[in-house]
Every structure is written in structure tokens, then in C-alpha cells.
């Protein structure tokens, strides 16, 4: 890593984040798969986007009612958002979150995406060097969002795949795990100000029950923690057997002044290129503080108008879009999971989001994150981009996230490439085992016969060594956990 003399310490840190997280995406953008122009290019199963509904969204967004242009749309708005949009968001969330009473427009703020919301909330709820509690694995972009501007750290409640007395499913979040992570952080002198909940959860696909949500919120109230609830996949629950419960639909919030809910259109409406996110909070101090940052993260007037038109068209949403979207998501999920079953690969079978959390541990020579990264690069060399577990701060090497919300021809080709890598890897590991068998090789039970699907037994990572991480982003995140890291890494050291 080259420290630039032209940048501040923060500028150099921002460069580290960019360089360490963009390797796969830089390769993808330089060599994108195209059925006609570049059939040997990289297929992207790493970015959580819904590519199944362009036909529906392009048709709706180009209808004549979307094209109004009036002077207020080209002028500075209220930084919280135009009132016509905030009123429509309040009505929309009241409906789809099943709120017990109508939600209020004055509690709504709109920004250009949920990443900006995480950044703004971290900045107004925490002082530099303080922390937010979150369970792993989690969407790794949150680390960058809360740190780059706010200098806020994340404290991890590590979840694992083991089934125990208190954990009835793999990677289950419990209050005991939150308590332990919080007390460990406080013992190290770290001030924790908030808890982040992802529901539905990315990358696991878990949907929290009402009783679980109540327990998490009661835990936060006991410790006077704010709760930031990200519900960006709330309408992407694609199986009728699963029921999503919004925090905004609860009859009584334990601590409404410290409960803040975010949602956006990028996932549920398959338009990640339209930057729009919304925050709902009853705390007007928080709302006003976040609104002051909307000056940097506002949504332009014409986009606000289009979003309002989209959200108010309930007939189209319910009768056309959601029906088609859920059917397409379910079909794509079924195709990918059937392929995984054929390969004998364990995975978490969930019904929300665009992703499957896959257990590739038996394809690692040793249970380390270095081996995980080698497997990730092997996939990339074979022109398929996945997301490895370390990108989500997973505690166990060998878990990967695959995005299935894509067209069938790309899913078919991508799964063929994955199959090729896994079959090659299996042959190599078997050949090496014959040449030099490992004394500590174990064959263990799968972590759940119900939740980790299809394969009831798998090979535990053998001869596991330390899990030290070689890539820069892991090192940076480790160093960030030290409360005095920024004090030690001054601008002079980056000169």
C-alpha cells in the first residue's frame, strides 16, 4: 500500500477502503459478461442487485405520469425532502409495514440511498471513536458507511453455524450474544451508542420473528442504545410460507425515541441506480440532525417526483409488480439451490432477499481466511464473481454469498463455472490427501439437518491454523477496533 503525500490521513484511509474492496469489481467492470459481445466475460454473482424486473420497471418509469416538470422540482427543497414525497412515503410504509396507526410525514427524511443514511446516523448518534454493535455476518458496506465520515467503529457480535442449546438455527442472533459483545467492548473501554439490525438479514436471508425483534429492542432499551433497523429487503420475501414483521408494525416499541427505521427502493423495486433511501424516526432531534446532512446527500426534485408516483401506484405494485417479482425470485432461487443440492453443497435455505449463504468449507485445504481468499480468486479466474465470508466479517472461513436474482442464461452459465471450480478443487484436495494425509482430518456433522439443507454431513476444515488476514481491509478493520488507532495514524505518518 502506497501512502500518498497529497492526502490527509482520512484520505489515505479512504483509499485503503476503495482498493481493498474493489479488486473483484474492478476485474468485473473491465471484463463484463455479455451474451453476444463478451460471452467469456465475468458473470457477477457478487453485487446484490435484482436483474429480473427491468422490463416491468422500465415500462412503469417511462409512462407519461412520470414526466411532470414544475418549478419546485428544479429549486432547493426542504432538506428532509419535498413534503409530497414524505407524505407518500408515510402512507406507503403505513400500508406495507402494517403500522397499527398512520405514520407521520414529519417523521420521514429522504436521502440518496441507505448507505448515506448509515453514514448520517452514525455521525449524529456517535462521537468519533465510539461504536455501533452489529451481528456478523453482515453487509460489509456498513463498515465503510459509518467510518469514513463519522469515524465510528463497529463492535461485532460473532455468530456461527453451530447448533447449541440457545441457537436453534445456524448463525442465530440471540440476546446473550449481544450482551457478551457489548460487555466485551465496554471492558476494552469502547463506548457503544447503537445497535444495527438487518431485517431481512443480508447475507443470511433470515427474517426475525416478532418475539426476536421484541427481545432485541428490549436489550437495547436496557442499555440505552439507539436501534437502527435496515428493512431494505422487506418486500423481497418471495415465499408465502415466510412472514416479514416490520418494527414499524409493532404495537408498542420499547424505546420509540431511540428506534430508527430505514428503507429504500433499490432492492425491492430493482432500481439500484436510482439513489433513494428513507428514514423514519419519531425523534425530532435525530431527524433535524440528519436533515442537516441532507445538504450533501439530497435527492433531486425530478427523482423525488418519480418515486412518489411509483409508491402511490398501489394497484400496479400489488397486482403487477410484486406478483411477478416474487414469482421470478422464487424461480431463480429454486434453480440455484437445486444446482447446489446436485453438487452436494450445504446452504441456508431462506425465502428473502437475493442471496444464498453457501458452505464451501469442504473445498478449503485448511480452515483459514487465506484459503477462503484463494478459493474466491479461483472463482474469479474462472470468470464468476462471488462474495466471500470475510467480506461480511463471518467468523468461519469458507462461507460465500451468491446472488441469484438474475436471468436464467446467466445463472446457468455461472453455475457451470462454479461447478467446474468445485470439481477441480475436490480432485486436488483428494490427490493431496493421498500423498500426505493429515492426522487431524475430521468428518463432522452438518450444523443442522433442517437449516443447512441437503448435505447432512460435511468435511470440517482440516488442520486449521490461525485465521490471520492478509488483505488490507481486514488489517484496517482490526486496527480500527483500537480506540487510539486514528491518534497513532496521523497525517504526518501518511506523508
UniProtKB/TrEMBL annotation:
Domain of life: Eukaryota
Statement: the UniProt record of this protein carries the keyword Cell membrane: no
Pfam name, any one: Aminotran_1_2
Presence of the UniProt keyword NAD in the record: no
SUPFAM superfamilies, sorted: PLP-dependent transferases (SSF53383)
GO MF terms held by the record: pyridoxal phosphate binding; transaminase activity
Cited function: Does not catalyze the synthesis of 1-aminocyclopropane-1-carboxylate but is capable of catalyzing the deamination of L-vinylglycine.
Protein name (database record): 1-aminocyclopropane-1-carboxylate synthase-like protein 1
Organism field: Eudromia elegans
Name of the coding gene: Accs_1
Amino acid at each position: 500500500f502506497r501512502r500518498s503525500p497529497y492526502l490527509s490521513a482520512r484520505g489515505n484511509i479512504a483509499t485503503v477502503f476503495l482498493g481493498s474492496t474493489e479488486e473483484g469489481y474492478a476485474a468485473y467492470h473491465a471484463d463484463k459478461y455479455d451474451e453476444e459481445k463478451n460471452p467469456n466475460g465475468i458473470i457477477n454473482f457478487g453485487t446484490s442487485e435484482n436483474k429480473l424486473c427491468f422490463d416491468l420497471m422500465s415500462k412503469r418509469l417511462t409512462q407519461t405520469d412520470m414526466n411532470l416538470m414544475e418549478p419546485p422540482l428544479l429549486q432547493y427543497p426542504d432538506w428532509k425532502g419535498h413534503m409530497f414525497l414524505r407524505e407518500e412515503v408515510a402512507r406507503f410504509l403505513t400500508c406495507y409495514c402494517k403500522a397499527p396507526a398512520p405514520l407521520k410525514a414529519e417523521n420521514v427524511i429522504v436521502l440518496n440511498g441507505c448507505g448515506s443514511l448509515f453514514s448520517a446516523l452514525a455521525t449524529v448518534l456517535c462521537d468519533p471513536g465510539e461504536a455501533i454493535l452489529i451481528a456478523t455476518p453482515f453487509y460489509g458496506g456498513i463498515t465503510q458507511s459509518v467510518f469514513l465520515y463519522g469515524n465510528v467503529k463497529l463492535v461485532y457480535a460473532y455468530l456461527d453455524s453451530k447448533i447449541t442449546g440457545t441457537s436453534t438455527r445456524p448463525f442465530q442472533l440471540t440476546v446473550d450474544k449481544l450482551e457478551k459483545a457489548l460487555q466485551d467492548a465496554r471492558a476494552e473501554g469502547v463506548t457503544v451508542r447503537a445497535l444495527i439490525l438487518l431485517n431481512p438479514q443480508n447475507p443470511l436471508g433470515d427474517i426475525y420473528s416478532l418475539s426476536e425483534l421484541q427481545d432485541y429492542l428490549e436489550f437495547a432499551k436496557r442499555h440505552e442504545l439507539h436501534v437502527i433497523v435496515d428493512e431494505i429487503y422487506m418486500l423481497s420475501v418471495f415465499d408465502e410460507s415466510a412472514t416479514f414483521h416490520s418494527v414499524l408494525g409493532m404495537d408498542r416499541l420499547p424505546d420509540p425515541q431511540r428506534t430508527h427505521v430505514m428503507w429504500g427502493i433499490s432492492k425491492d423495486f430493482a432500481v439500484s441506480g436510482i439513489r433513494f433511501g428513507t428514514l423514519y424516526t419519531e425523534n425530532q432531534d435525530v431527524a433535524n440532525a440528519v436533515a442537516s446532512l441532507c445538504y450533501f446527500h439530497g435527492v433531486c426534485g425530478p427523482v423525488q417526483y418519480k418515486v412518489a408516483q411509483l409508491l402511490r401506484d398501489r394497484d400496479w405494485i400489488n397486482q403487477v409488480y410484486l406478483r411477478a417479482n416474487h414469482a421470478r425470485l422464487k424461480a431463480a432461487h429454486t434453480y440455484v439451490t437445486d444446482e447446489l443440492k446436485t453438487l452436494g453443497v450445504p446452504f441456508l435455505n431462506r425465502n428473502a432477499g437475493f442471496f444464498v449463504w453457501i458452505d464451501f468449507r469442504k473445498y478449503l485445504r485448511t480452515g483459514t481466511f487465506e484459503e477462503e481468499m484463494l478459493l474466491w480468486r479461483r472463482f474469479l479466474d474462472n470468470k464468476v464473481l462471488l462474495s466471500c465470508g470475510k467480506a461480511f466479517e463471518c467468523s468461519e472461513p469458507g462461507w460465500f454469498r451468491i446472488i441469484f436474482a438474475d436471468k436464467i442464461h446467466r445463472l446457468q452459465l455461472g453455475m457451470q463455472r462454479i461447478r467446474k471450480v468445485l470439481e477441480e478443487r475436490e480432485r486436488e484436495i483428494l490427490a493431496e490427501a493421498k500423498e500426505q494425509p493429515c492426522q487431524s482430518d475430521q468428518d463432522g456433522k452438518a450444523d443442522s439437518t433442517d437449516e443447512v439443507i441437503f448435505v447432512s454431513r460435511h468435511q470440517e476444515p482440516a488442520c486449521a491454523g490461525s485465521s490471520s488476514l492478509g488483505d488490507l481491509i481486514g488489517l484496517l478493520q482490526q486496527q480500527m477496533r483500537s480506540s487510539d488507532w486514528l491518534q497513532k495514524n496521523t497525517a504526518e505518518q501518511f506523508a
